[in-house]
Structures are given as structure tokens and as C-alpha cells.
Fold this sequence. Notes:
Blueprint: E1 6-10, H1 14-27, E2 32-36, H2 39-48, E3 54-58, H3 66-75, E4 84-88, H4 93-102, E5 106-109, H5 114-133, E6 136-137, E7 143-147, E8 154-161, E9 165-171, E10 183-189, E11 196-208, E12 218-225, H6 230-255
Parallel strand pairs: 1-2, 1-3, 3-4, 4-5
Antiparallel strand pairs: 6-8, 7-8, 7-10, 8-9, 9-12, 10-11, 11-12
Helix pairs in contact: 2-3
Amino acid sequence: MLEKDVVLVVDDSSTARSAIINVLRDHLYCKDIVEASDGQDALRKLRQRPDVDWIFCDWEMPNMAGDELLVEIRNNPDTAHLPFIMITSKGDRDSLVTAVQLGVTSFIVKPFTAKKLVEKVFLAQGRMERRNAERTRAATEQKTWLTIGSLQEVEADLVDISLSGLLMLVQHELIRTTTVFDAFQAKIDLPSSNESFVLPCQIIRLEADPLHPSRTDIVRLAARFQPMNEQARKSLVNYIEAAARQARAAAQKLQG
């Protein structure tokens, strides 16, 4: 359901926009819907509403068509992550392949039913949830600093991270009064940079290090992210991408 999301609907036909909006409101319970009449208008609306969560867009439009808008969306780091559902009368294989190559999340061929649009949204949500859960190995020797309650900053070793949470190793003595569900702030340095960013977290698991189960001085702490602002989310995405590039480079060096 999209009751908490902001949706941008782009189509040069007001009738077509109304049809999509009716499905979004009646079947997906979306309350905050922004309308645009073509790709250029959509870009203006995105600058006004950076909190947009989804884009539903017609392909064939004047001024800027749907495929041109999709390219702009994917080339902008601020919008590249947005799910983009293309609605089109083009049902031929070449057009659909083109849309996939441009980075479309999904597409709906006109005419469509409310059931088909809802199915496409559910499938897209499932893919995003799986992507969010994919963990990336942390950058080499990545340190993290935790602020838990009244404790001073505690140093930890980041093991891996995803869009939904992180895993780290920390000295047991430093967090011995900490329990599951405690909230904390995690400060992480960006690779090859003097900059750092802070993420709001909640502990979901504390356990012995499975690689060294006999050690009692180190524990493994797993946490999920709490709601964060746009800048923190952007920094998280940048960090994961940088860590993934570093991991691929290291693997290629070993293979070489």
C-alpha cells in the first residue's frame, strides 16, 4: 500500500492521469499525489517536491517523453533510486527492452486494469525490499562510532551494511549495559573522504562473534535503521555504492 508515500503521475492526458490517480487512491490508499503534464513539468514538480517516492509515467508525451524523463531521473543521484513505472501503448519487444535498458522499474501496457496496476506496484515493492536487505561488505577496516544513551562515543568495527541495517563488532565491556531495542546513533566515515554521516539505529540482536565463539570480550551487534532524513539516506546509499566498488576492485585484484 502507498498510504504514506508521495506519488508523481505524469501524463499529457488529464483523463489518463485521472484513471491512474483513481486506482492509486481507491486501491492503494495513496493520499499525496502530484500531477505533471509532461517530462519537463515532472522535473519541475520533482524540484518542488523532493519527497516523491514513486513515479508513474506515460511514454508518449510532447516536450519530453517518458523515456527521456527516465534518463534524467536515473542520471540524477537525488532521484536515481525512485521506482519508475512506465505506462505505454507500446507493447512490442524492442520498446520494452529499451525501457529495461534505461532503468525502468516496471511497465504497464495500455489499456490496463486496476488489478494489473496494483500487481505491478506489489511486485516493485517486493524487489525494493529484497534490494534493501542485500548486505554489502563494509569498506576495509571501517570504523564506526556509536552514541548510545548517556555513554560516550564507543568505537566499533563495521562488518556489513544494507539499506535497512548494519552489523558490527564491538567490545563487550563498552556496551555491557546496552540491551536489545536500545536506540543509538552510528557515525560512519565515507571511504576516501574526511566526511562522515550519522544514522539513527535500533539494536535488534546482540550475540557472540560466530567466527570466534570462545571470545568473551567482543560481541556482534546487529541494528536496523530508524526513519532518517533525506541527506542521511543519500549518504547511506553513497557509502554502500563506494563499499561495493571497493569490494569489486579487491576481488578483481585477487583474480588478476
